[in-house]
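step 3/5: co-fold with WTA
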Amino acid sequence: MSNYHIKHLEEYYKVYRKSVREPELFWEEIAEEHFSWRKRWDKVLDWDFSKPEIKWFEGAKLNITENCIDRHLRTKGDQTAILFEPNNPADGPEHITYRDLHERVNKLANVLKSQGIKKGDRVCIYLPMIPELAVSLLACARIGAIHSVVFAGFSSSALASRINDSECKLVITSDGSYRGAKTIDLKGIVDEALETCVCTTHVLVVKRINSEINMKTGRDQWLAPLLENAPTECEPEVMDAEDPLFILYTSGSTGSPKGMVHTTAGYMVYTAYTFKNVFQYRPGDVYWCTADIGWITGHSYIVYGPLANGATTIMFEGVPSYPDFGRFWEIVEKHKVTQFYTAPTAIRALAKENLDYVNKYDLSSLKVLGSVGEPINEEAWHWYNDNIGKQKSPIVDSWWQTETGGIMISPLPYVTPTIPTYATLPFPGIQPALMDENGKELTENQVEGRLCIKFPWPSIARTIWGNHERYKDTYFSAYNDKYFTGDGALRDAVGYYRITGRVDDVIIVSGHNLGTAPIEDAINEHPAVAESAIVGYPHDVKGNALYGYITLKETGEGRDHDNLRKEINQLITDRIGPIAKLNKIQFTNGLPKTRSGKIMRRILRKIAGKDTGNLGDISTLLNPECVKEIMDEAL
Ligand code: WTA
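step 4/5: write tokens
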């Protein structure tokens, strides 16, 4: 029996049981049957969560781009690999076949080599959602360079800290980007960032918006002329299974962003296998994930997973509101999209608009709808199901993380019966555990706890770049011998999982993970600010919005509060990016603290969420009097 494509529920349970009973055999069969290897592995799995050390397919040799491109050339050379839909509908679309993709990736790989980039070097990619972005990832992978994509909405200082952390030698960017009716000066942001990055000696610039930009002699070069002269064949670097493929930064609850390191073989096998099953992709389908490649969803389910299956994957440069709120549905009709994967925040934003924007278009090609990035609320689920899926396309509410590399808990469409807001069942190979406060596993059903994973899966991140201790502390120290996700979850009577949200200080705003600490650090840089605390509160489109409680220094008192709010949000925009701006700012005379001086965020969260019925015992606080004051003045 092939385990690769699961077609009904009974088969799922059978495959799942096998994946738990004989994990090595299970993954070995999948790896063997569906990928091309330069050399077979010596050992399927070697692991020790206490170190933590995880190795999959040790000894194997491969190149992921041979699996994502070359091996499809013979049968699918003329099939569209990437279907590019530009910001302005009149400028596209562009069909990039597997043959075109092969040529573009090989040429860019040769350009990178000509700039001195070698296996193991880090390359930062700061690009909008244009084909060069996907091509850049693959070109790095072709020559064994480690890509570090930074979402092109991050500010120059956020970009600089990521470039410096992994010491990127080269940056690939563009003169600018389109975002709806606006343009953004990406190159200017890169220039500013590089003022503090001595590690970066080369910058390659894609021409996208034809703006006037500064080119620094000796450092910056336009990419197009280099590509023109580059050879069209680049021998793929033969990589070890455990060689790093990429670094992708994600926010933690404290400290600087964590550079999660993903390695080659396990990541390839897992993203390909999950893509096939979670989307039930069949030849001829046109798959569209609306995420940005700057996030893990784009890495795994726009680029690597779909291409490893020889799929047609859409890359969309624009925004859902441009030229109008019908853009998504216009694209679905135009390209006869079969699988559509988006985030709850986008669904909620579009659900607010007139239904005519949806009903104008023929959505009958859709077979599967996906949701990712945060819990989907019931109302959004039904709107999606009724108006987009017309109650005939199953919704796959897929739970996973940057750290997990691929989808972990999700229905399989036409296989797993769905229930709104439930991510349902673990993917084969995934062994979830719910833990109580005392660190004991809750083994029965109908329980709620903290979500851990007990056994390694092929695409788990192997470390945090340059900081293995932090990797261990963050993910493997809370619960003995288990990977801790940072999420809470419940398991119902039949074993379905429902993710209830973060249990740490990460707040998900419009599907983006934001750690409170870096935002507070940015705010505290303001000369008038003494102290600050950020919490999330429910927001009908963003899921969560940010509420800041800020205590001013004496020098700040008497200052115009509206002005201060603007300055503080500007600081956050400069340090992190506009996605981290605060929706509400309340100036306070003090923040509630425990006797050991820790800010009691639990109380602040309740006040921000207007849920002050039961604040719990506040008498043990250092300064209980400030709670009433904060409540009285809450926004
Ligand atoms: C949350 C995104 C509920 C969760 C792929 C997780 C979800 C964090 C879901 C990871 C879902 C993601 N239901 N919550 N279907 N998907 N999350 O690293 O809190 O950007 O820990 O990866 O998003 O976000 P990240």
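step 5/5: annotate
The mean pLDDT is 96.
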